[in-house]
Amino acid sequence: MKIFTYIKEDSNRIEKKNFCKIGDLELWKHLIYELNKLNCDIFIDTDSLEIIESCKTSNPHLSNVTAYSRLFKFIRMENDPNNKLSPAILMLESFLDNHIEDENETIVLTHVTSPFLRSPTVTNAVKLYEEGQYEFIHSVNVEKNFAFLGGFDSPINFDPLVLQRTQDLEQICFSNGAFFIFNKKTFKRHNHRWGESIYFYPLPPVQGIEVDYPEDLELARIVYRGMK
Q: Going edge to edge, which strands form the sheet with 136-143?
């Protein structure tokens, strides 16, 4: 098994998001330190010299981590105001081509914006994936509530004319980006992080917290203080 992630120097919605402190650690270190416990190779594609230099130190929490410089063509894509597409899939493809020889090896793509994801959860999800029933495993948050797509005239999981109990509603799965699990062969076939043969792996609410907006960061800090 190998773990891959990408970390940006800066962010649009929160300035230098990945370096914001949650407790005494920068956001990016929370997940990387946790996954380092799995004692498998972790690769970081980044445009941050600070992260690259941090991963060269003797920090025991980064003992299995290799950080390498993002290719300029991907940086240019990210910074092009006329480009509306993320280079994330291309960066993943580059990682697989350059660092993965065994096309059947399990790959865990993760995002450091999930600071409370725990290593046993990843281990359990990998075990499920390696049973071979699914081509992809993807982490999600699961909700059972009355859901609309944009407005009252577009209910998703209920009939507005029928009063139902929330526990009887069909569950809605929301992608949280905490992890995607697959192998190189499957990725090359679909050219994506997911496909038809996919299992949505539900995360506990705290582990499913994703830091994307300023209010998410504040929530993460409150949760971290409560956990401590």
A: 65-69, 41-46, 2-7, 106-110, 172-183, 136-143, 198-202
Per-residue pLDDT tens digits for 39-57: 999 999 999 999 999 999 9
CA distance 222 to 228: 10
Show me where the domains of the chain are located. Answer: 2-144+175-227
d(CA 189, CA 2): 19
The CATH homologous superfamily to which domain 2-144+175-227 belongs is Spore Coat Polysaccharide Biosynthesis Protein SpsA; Chain A (3.90.550.10)
pLDDT: is 166 or 204 the higher one?
204
Tokens of 130: 């390696």
Exposure class string for 134-166: b at 16+ Cβ within 10 A, else e? bbbbbbbbeeeeebeeeeeeeeeebeeeeeeee
Which residue blocks in 8-141 are alpha helix, DSSP H? Answer: 27-35, 49-54, 72-79, 88-99, 119-130
What would the two tokens of residue 69 be? 């410089």
